[in-house]
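Dear colleague,

Following up on yesterday's call, I've attached the two folding results inline so they're easy to grep. Please treat them as preliminary; we haven't cross-checked anything against experimental data yet. The first protein's sequence and structure tokens come first.
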Amino acid sequence: MVDRRAPEMCEKEAESRASEGPPWPARLRSTSSCSSEGARPSPQETSSPLLGRGWGWVVLLATILVLALTLAFPSCIGIFYTDLQSQFHASNSETSWVPSIMTAVLHAGGPLCSVLVEHYGCRVTVMFGGLLSGIGMATSSFTQSIGQLYITAGVITGLGFCLSFQPAIAILGHYFVRRRAFANSLASTGTAIGLSTLPLFAHFLLTHMGWRGSFLILGAVLLNCCVCGAVMRPVHQGSKKPNRTRGQPDKIENELSSTGHQRASGKLAAFLAALQKHMAFDLFCSNKRYQIYSIGVTWMMLGFVVPLVYLVPYATSHGMEQDRAALLLAILGLINIFMRPLAGIISELHCFSGKHIYLFSGAVLVNGLSNCICGIGASFSVLLAFVGVYALSMSFIGSLLFQVLMEIVEMPRFPSALGLITIMESVTLLIGPPLGGLLVDSTQEYKYVFYACCCAMVSSALFMGVAFYLLEQDEGKTMDPPKHAVPLSLDCQYTGITPGSRAVQKSGSETEYITSV
């Protein structure tokens, strides 16, 4: 049935329904017959950072659950590390490729995720990712070789994780504007919740059902990402077709379809335009802050995840029971649950305004130095001290990782900027655990893996902190000081607008001034 009423009547009906406050089940649906192609969003959708009188908090809760099931999942593979080694007669390096490939694909699928989000939206992409990860993990329970496990648990499940967590982070940035830093810190607690519950749950399943039965049940658990994606309705109910710009393939091919040579040129230009749009190479070349941050985060990932993979094998190799080793990961997650919201509150303090990158670099530095604690010994008390310091610094890293990126690039470019970073860091995430496995196989000591992680993290922190400081000093020298100083009251917040700035009219009456790119 097609609604043939005038668009003005549809908009008025949508506004009246929004003001009445529809019941909860009705909020799961879009604006029904009033959401036609080319229709304008209602005033509630364009003016309020929280759609539907608080629906943003439902999206935040769904994002927390998605992150708990995706980003924290590779760490629980360490629970099955010894069983997979004995089942497939694999070395440390061969076994470590399973979580390594899973984590790398989780980050490397960013451009594909960006394309799917553009064409189908965040809701459909998250649900498809949950279905893909569930199928991949369930199929892993039937594998007969370590190579098959690379494909099912590594590639398929990792790609499903990517398609679930990245759109969830992106849509959260559109729902929350004023409290975006606090929302990001709350969302990052999802990783902490997963770290505190998944290892214990995996150990329980391994004890009672073996690793094959555990993988089958974990695949069913991952299907809950589909439920979380269902509540992530789009902020604007507009046209489902993407807006066409000059750089997109269709218009280029239409304009350059006269000759075969022009068609080839058009396809090449379309490919380059799509590459620039979904991987933000232009930002990497023009935005120095984004360039420094992406390189620093990429190098940081070489040693950030590896300790979580080798903590349980390191503890069990020195005689610790496997349940106590799994408890260490659970304690790490519990500390993150309470510390990540606190880290978000601390980062919003006035003294850290405009200095989030230095707070982030300091957290990376402390996280790297904490790996030296494992070199003291492998007793429960020593490893508990390591987990405490690692978890505290990890809380700030998780809370600020996306927030710093949102401050460096504009929100419309955030998905593509995140996609390029995830592509870059997927390389170091892929080679990190296998390099650690080679180090263990050659030295027969796990502690050297933690020392190597310390070197990678510390060098990354120093690079980002020093580079941003030098960049700010250089920009400060090139800026001319104001000729006349105007005294401001204490409750007045000043925003400078340079003569070369241009005003960008946003939806509604809000105007945003862009002073630098």
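Below is the second protein, in the same order (sequence, then structure):
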Amino acid sequence: MSPPRNVVKIAVQMRDAIPQLIQLDQAKPLAAVLKEVCDAWSLTHSERYALQFADGHKRYITENNRAEIKNGSILCLSTAPDLEAERLLGGLQSGSREERREALRRFVLLASDMTFAREVISRDGLQRLGTIIEDGDNLGEVLALGLRAFMELMEHGVVSWETLSIPFVKKVVSYVNMNLMDASVQPLALGLLESVTLSSPALGQLVKSEVPLDRLLVHLQVMNQQLQTKAMALLTALLQGAIPEERKHMLDYLWQRNLRQFIYKNIIHSVAPLGDEMAHHLYVLQALTLGLLEQRMQTPLDPYSQEQREQLQALRQAAFEPEGESLGTGLSADRRRSLCAREFRKLGFSNSNPAQDLERVPPGLLALDNMVYFSRHAPSAYSRFVLENSSREDKHECPFARSSVQLTVLLCELLHVGEPCSETAQDFSPMFFSQDHSFHELFCVGIQLLNKTWKEMRATQEDFDKVLQVVREQLARTLALKPTSLELFRTKVNALTYGEVLRLRQTERLHQEGTLAPPILELREKLKPELMGLIRQQRLLRLSEGTLFRKISSRRRQDKLWFCCLSPNHKVLQYGDVEEGTDPPTPESLPEQLPVADIRALLTGKDCPHVREKGSGKQNKDLCELAFSVSYDRGEEEAHLNFIAPSKQEFHLWTDGLSALLGSPMGSEQTRQDLEQLLTMETKLRLLELENVPIPERPPPIPPPPTNFNFCYDCSITEP
């Protein structure tokens, strides 16, 4: 007879004692269970003890998390969290440096447990750790352990970062600003200051005033990847906390100090692979830099601005007036105005007054900036563009000004100018760090590409929107390749001609549609079950290999990773925390387990509890697209295991695999694409012998029956 549902068979171990194999009744109070365990080992005062998970982070068992105990779990009997906190806090006050070091090591091991953290915080443990950090008697391992333990306790959110004192923050700043410092201390100090900057505007201003940008540049130039990453994290946090004017001043200073060149040569093209954290911070730096263009993008042209009128006149003069000559020599004012209006129309402005074309926002003044930049930095290409189109028939000319306005809008959309930074994205462009004025340089390439595509399409004014769609596709496809330099981008995008775009569209359409002949459709339907089984097998194998997931909090992007995989027998999900930079753990070493049989449902997107907690802001849109959860039974309550997939592909693989485990259809876009690809390949293999043989839309008709069946053998006649 099987035990009741709320009874689990577990092992409890204690140092220097024979382990106990017990049946734990989840309905029995935890204090009663502890007393029975202690009585079996003849231990008195059971209130002085507590149960912990034996593996992983050795979390304490409480009434809130006891439902996580499953059949086969191994627990250990240890000192109660309140007594352990008291003991370790006493060790921090010991006169022996070795005792303080051991206490701090134990602190770091237990600080991630919420139960232990609450006990420490309630006994002023943060203040005692803060004293160790502020005193700074030992700048080596003791200080590093103190900083790590302090950050682990603060991460629980029990105490706000805003409660930190100014002297404490200044002391941590001093560790960042020191020249000779233990290599393990400065990354932790930088990480702590990043948390302070992101969580407290007031203390963030203090950090900004106390940590010189030059100091962060020094840390970035140290060939220590962890230190570089933390320095970049603090730098992007300071930039995010600054107002637009301060941010522009800071970025201008960083660019003057050759930060862009250093990032491009020594970080992007470093021998060591680029970590996920650094990729995210480079994305944020790129987004913040491009975000400086938003003000110009949202500002319409002012017809009364002398500077802007002069820029428009400079555009006209650069195209139509030879150097040293001036329009209006010997002409009346009316004649001069008439000629100017005509030349502005030749430039591609829709109105004789060009200011009216630039009143639209976006792109506002950003379009004018791009046109002026192109005329000054590529004068020959600018003149050739304008004069070449001026000599064409009216209906075939490519309007420079209109094209510039629309291309600027297009580039802002492709590069997400003005959009808030994502918390998880890593999609930065190496080309951005290879070139000063990258946006304007990209415009110069794009406007020449537009003129080239216009000629290839033999377009007229009515085809303007079609040309723009092709140019969008050319730019988007080339940007997706992540070229490492502007020259490489120019080469690739110019190789993507209009004919090549049509070929790619046709190829993709054939891959998507396949043939629609009824016999082929019937064959595809017969092949689908077998191929869906193959896809299901691949998804489960991928889950068995496991994936590293990143923990995301409502406050900021986290450094912590956790690993999850499916057991080889496909019956248990195994997971646990891991350190960044280490090899993926083996399934046997993972501390947590979730039986597949206990899973109720798979949730995705906005239905996930960790997405609902974060709200619905624009910055959470990408988070919502990568989020999924599994709900499972934990005692009588419903619990959730929450995931944030590292990429859209991983999201599809995991949701498909979990759906397959639950017996639900695999309905992701990736499954549809994989099935289509496999069906196309299998169909072509089956039809190899019918190559160049037309397949009719309908099967040939069945001929009518013969007039008689005399040719048939009559089986009823017996032979003699």
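For the second protein, one point worth flagging: DSSP finds 29 helices and eleven strands in the chain.

Best wishes,
A.L.
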